[in-house]
C-alpha cells in the first residue's frame, strides 16, 4: 500500500511538471508583459509597441533586448526622430543572439560583434547594424554600434532572463548610430516600383508601372498598404494566362496583390483568415485567405496557394513581401488547376531594400545581413525545438525508471 502511494505521488508530481512544461513551451515570451512590471522601463516598453518591434521580439527566440530606462529614453526622444527612424534606432538594441549576465562577462577574447534586428531590415549599410560588446576593466561591459566612435553605453543590470530564449539587459544610454538615425523616407515618398525592381520582383513591377492600377497602390501608402509581390520566376510562368485577360481583368489581378492596411509578418501570423484586397468592390469579393503553415505564411485563393518567401521593405505604414506565385482570384480563374509553370521561385530567401533604378543580376540577390539573420532565426527555432524535445525525453525516461524502482 505504501509502495502504491509513493508511485501515485510520483506520477502526480511528474504530471504537474509535464503540464507546466507544456504551458511554458506554448506561451513563449511576451516583451510587453515582462517590461510592464518594471515602471522605470515604461517609456521603452511604449515605443517598442508603437514601432511594432514588440511583435517581432515576441516572434523570435534566442534574442537579447538592450533596454533603456525612462531617463535614457528621454534623451533619445529629445532628438525628435520620426517614428520610422526611431524604429531603426530601437531595432539596433535588439540582438539576434542570447546574452545572459553570465555570458556577457565571459565573452571569448573579451569582445564580439553581434547582429541586430536593424541589420535585418536591409537599411543598414555593410555592418552598421552590428553591435560591439566589449569586456572592460573592473567587470564593466561596454556597448556600441559598429559605426560608432567608441563605447559610450554600459551594462547596468539584468532585468529578466529566460535561458537561451530571451534576455533583457538594461544599459546606461542609447546606442548611437549615424545609419540608424538617418531620416527615413515619408510613406508618400516611397517608390514602390523601384523597391520591387531591386528585390527580385522586377517582372511584376514592369506589369504594374504602365497599369492604371499603379495610382491606387501609390494613393494607399499613407493610409496603410501591404503588397504581395510575385517573384520574377512566378510572373514568367503566369504570363501566358495574363496575356489572355482583358485590360480590366489585368488591373484586377494587379490590385489583387495589394491589401489596404499595414500588416507586419507577425500580424499576418496572428490574424489568419479572409482578407480583402485593393480589388475588392461590391459583389466582387476578390479576397483570399491567410493561413499559417508552421513558421511559414501562405495565401490561399481557392485557385492557387502562394507562400511568403521574403520581405522587400517593412516601414510602417507600408510593407511589401515577396511571394512564390502569382495570386489568381477565383472570380477570374474559376476551375483552373495549379500548373507546374506556376511553381514557386527557387529557394526562399529574405530580401532587402535596394537603391535606385536599373537592377543588376547581383541586385536581385539578397544581401548578407538579412539572409544570415534569417538563418540565425531558423537555427534558433530549431535549437529551441530540440531543447524542448530533449526535456520531454528526459522527463519520460525519468518516469519509466522511477516506476521500475518503486
Automatic annotation (TrEMBL):
Residues 350-359 have a biased composition (Basic residues). Residues 360-369 have a biased composition (Low complexity). Its main location: membrane. It is found in: Cell membrane. One of its GO terms (cellular component) is plasma membrane. Residues 1-28 form the signal peptide. Residues 28-175, 188-327 form the FAS1 domain. Pfam families: Fasciclin. Keywords: Cell membrane, Glycoprotein, GPI-anchor, Lipoprotein, Membrane, Proteoglycan, Repeat, Signal. May be a cell surface adhesion protein. This is FAS1 domain-containing protein. It comes from Arachis hypogaea (Peanut).
Amino acid at each position: 500500500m505504501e509502495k502504491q502511494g509513493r508511485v501515485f505521488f510520483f506520477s502526480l508530481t511528474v504530471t504537474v511538471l509535464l503540464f507546466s512544461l507544456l504551458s511554458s513551451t506554448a506561451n513563449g515570451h511576451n516583451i510587453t508583459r515582462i517590461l510592464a512590471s518594471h515602471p522605470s522601463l515604461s517609456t521603452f516598453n511604449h515605443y517598442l509597441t508603437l514601432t511594432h518591434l514588440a511583435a517581432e521580439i515576441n516572434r523570435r527566440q534566442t534574442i537579447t533586448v538592450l533596454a533603456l530606462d525612462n531617463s535614457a529614453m528621454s534623451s533619445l526622444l529629445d532628438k525628435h526622430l520620426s517614428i520610422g527612424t526611431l524604429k531603426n534606432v530601437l531595432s539596433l538594441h535588439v540582438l539576434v543572439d542570447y546574452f545572459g549576465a553570465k555570458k556577457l562577462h565571459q565573452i571569448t577574447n573579451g569582445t564580439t560583434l553581434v547582429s541586430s534586428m536593424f541589420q535585418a531590415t536591409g537599411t543598414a549599410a555593410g555592418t552598421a547594424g552590428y553591435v560591439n560588446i566589449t569586456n572592460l576593466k573592473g567587470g564593466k561591459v561596454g556597448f556600441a554600434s559598429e559605426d560608432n566612435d567608441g563605447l559610450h553605453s554600459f551594462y547596468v543590470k539584468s532585468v529578466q532572463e529566460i535561458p537561451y530564449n530571451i534576455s533583457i539587459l538594461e544599459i546606461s544610454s542609447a546606442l548611437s548610430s549615424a545609419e540608424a538615425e538617418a531620416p527615413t523616407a515619408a510613406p508618400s515618398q516611397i517608390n514602390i516600383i523601384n523597391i520591387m525592381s531591386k528585390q527580385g520582383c522586377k517582372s511584376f513591377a514592369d506589369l504594374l508601372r504602365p497599369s492604371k492600377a499603379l495610382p491606387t497602390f501609390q494613393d494607399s501608402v499613407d493610409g496603410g498598404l501591404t503588397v504581395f509581390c510575385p517573384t520574377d520566376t512566378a510572373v514568367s510562368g503566369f504570363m501566358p494566362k495574363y496575356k489572355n485577360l482583358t485590360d480590366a481583368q489585368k488591373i484586377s489581378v494587379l490590385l489583387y496583390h495589394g491589401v489596404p492596411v499595414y500588416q507586419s509578418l507577425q500580424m499576418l501570423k496572428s490574424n489568419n483568415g479572409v482578407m480583402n484586397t485593393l480589388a475588392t468592390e461590391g459583389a466582387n469579393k476578390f479576397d483570399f485567405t491567410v493561413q499559417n503553415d508552421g513558421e511559414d505564411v501562405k495565401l490561399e485563393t481557392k485557385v492557387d496557394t502562394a507562400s511568403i518567401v521574403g520581405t522587400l521593405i517593412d516601414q510602417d505604414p507600408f510593407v511589401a513581401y515577396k511571394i512564390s506565385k502569382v495570386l489568381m482570384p477565383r472570380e477570374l480563374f474559376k476551375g483552373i488547376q495549379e500548373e507546374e509553370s506556376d511553381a514557386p521561385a527557387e529557394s526562399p530567401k529574405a530580401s532587402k531594400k535596394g537603391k535606385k533604378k536599373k537592377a543588376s543580376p547581383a541586385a536581385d540577390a539578397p544581401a548578407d545581413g538579412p539572409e544570415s539573420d534569417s538563418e540565425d532565426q531558423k537555427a534558433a527555432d530549431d535549437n529551441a525545438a530540440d531543447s524542448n524535445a530533449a526535456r520531454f525525453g528526459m522527463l519520460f525516461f525519468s518516469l519509466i525508471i522511477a516506476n521500475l524502482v518503486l
